[in-house]
């Protein structure tokens, strides 16, 4: 029997689940059972949990449907637990280093008490100092084990379930489970303390609770707020059945109704049924008020008396709930020029244009990427919607002649931003753009994340120094209504990197549709346009940006590579878009395609890809053509930039470390051999899940036409897709 069973619900936090599990696996104390609770075997979190179970037999995942809620997930974990003591850890929280060893030592010291309370740390999502709210609650506890009657103020309802350890035999003997519905921690804390005979305290922080940027789900408005009263009734009814003294029931009653009064004073949490909530709370107050109970003094005592008498109108007046918090117009970001600012403010007062959509790619670099693919499909499926592309002045000349555009910063630019209903971008719109009620913002992203993104960059100093304000970034994320994913890995990482209340669209990347729809004629045409000689092997070399470099460094002698790899090899050089200067710099067997507007065309033309850590590998994998990873500085890149997974351990093809190794795999053909094909197949299975050629259609139908998810074209299985043929295949044919 393990010493501890640690139960980790994972619903809605798949992106951070690995960090929670790592915090357990990294403990110095190893006598434990780890139970991740996932929604279903095919849920995103289940894949994460299965990976850990495959590496460590102490990890035993179980499943609980989302409809069962947090209580159902924890109860499912309890049924699977075999440890002497149970711990509960939220899937986006962390068990601090040394926590299990400290808990084990304290239990050895106090004996196997029924409940061992411990301190926890509440960490603000972004800015602010961590707090230890459990410390004052536990401060008056005796040094050794004690009976609950010895400290009546420690009722358990002020502490979350993950701020304690519970003896499993004690829970089983009393038939204790988490109460159904919302506010389950409140009910659980009260019930366990009422049943416990011996408890103890550990004055040490063992859990880091990472507060969600969106706030607690329990604070959201909705009918679930009424479940709070169910939990209060449950605990106080159980207390009455135990025949406890007023000394014990008084603190329990007061702490429970402190939560009730807090909710009653927040009409934003009870958009409907606020009066009904107050009246029922008053009935519970009168029914469960302990004999001889004296309400606290001051304004809190006034609230108690108003609740007891059902004086709803007076309560509303006391709390000032009729006041609406107004935001000053001056606090809204505005364009920099006064005249433009005034015009923009005027246009913001005009109604939204329901048939206007604006698009932007790479901060105005032109007609490219997912926004361009969605724009093209929208003209086909939603021709009634007028589409305007936003572009920098120096890129306007490259816009297609039949695409309407507005130059960034111009008067027309601010006009369409003020009136548009639909916003599509693969980066972010400017700080001055106001998210109007009724507008729909779609963030398409522009790659699959291997390197850390968003707020995950904050722990990497070199990257963080170049990233600007993360607080402002999160403000821009708040404008998103939808966020696009091309695979489940991306969904989980976006959740971590860009926390927000948007909806994930696992539809694939529209820009990658062409890899399933292009024909042999398209491949021949693109190669001719790029200047690839007939009969040559075109190797696309696409290195990523290095945050610790000041300019583009190829990292490879491409002329020497061509000479060593074979007479038929030519290289298509595509530097990161940061280094696009709008002109070609190729020579000899090197064709510089950095300035070419369509990365998709370049990929279609290439017979093979050589890259280091660029996200282009995830897109190119859709073509099912050879990929070689040139990882000469992987360890440096990983430490400086931060990565989400170990690429050399799960690559899309062969991994080489030196120029000689790279040339050799092309010279002997192993870059396209059986081993490379097997690696590529596994990579495609993981990262090409949704890119089936119909992503743009799904996006347009869902976002612009408002069709329900069940009406969209289903994703074509990977085995049934037919990628565009490679040039080498055409020659053989």
How many angstroms does the end-to-end distance come to? 64 Å
Rg from alpha-carbon coordinates: 30 Å
Strand sequence of the main sheet, in spatial order?
3-2-1-4-7-6-8-5
Provide the helix percentage: 25-40%
**How many distinct helices?**
28
Low-confidence residue ranges: 321-333, 578-584
Number of strands: 21
Q: How much strand content do the residues show?
A: 5-15%
Shape: globular
Task: Assign the structural class, choosing from mainly alpha, mainly beta, alpha/beta, alpha+beta, or little secondary structure.
Answer: alpha/beta
Residue-averaged pLDDT: 90
Summarize the main sheet.
Answer: 8 strands, mixed
Strand and helix layout:
Elements (H helix, E strand, L loop, with lengths): L3 E6 L4 H12 L6 E7 L5 H12 L6 E2 L5 H12 L4 E4 L5 E2 L3 H12 L4 E9 L10 H5 L25 E4 H6 L10 H12 L3 E12 L16 H15 L4 H19 L9 H15 L9 H12 L2 H8 L18 H11 L4 E8 L8 H13 L4 E6 L13 E3 L3 H9 E6 L14 E4 L17 H7 L2 H8 L4 E4 L2 H10 L5 E4 L7 H4 L2 H11 L6 E6 L15 H8 L3 E5 L16 E3 L6 H7 L2 E4 L4 H5 L6 E4 L3 H8 L12 E3 L2 H9 L6 H14 L7 H10 L22 H6 L1
Parallel strand pairs: 1-2, 1-4, 2-3, 6-8, 9-10, 9-12, 10-11, 12-13, 13-14, 14-15, 16-17, 16-19, 17-18, 19-20, 20-21
Antiparallel strand pairs: 4-7, 5-8, 6-7
Helix pairs in contact: 1-2, 7-8, 8-9, 8-10, 9-10, 13-15, 14-27, 20-22, 21-25
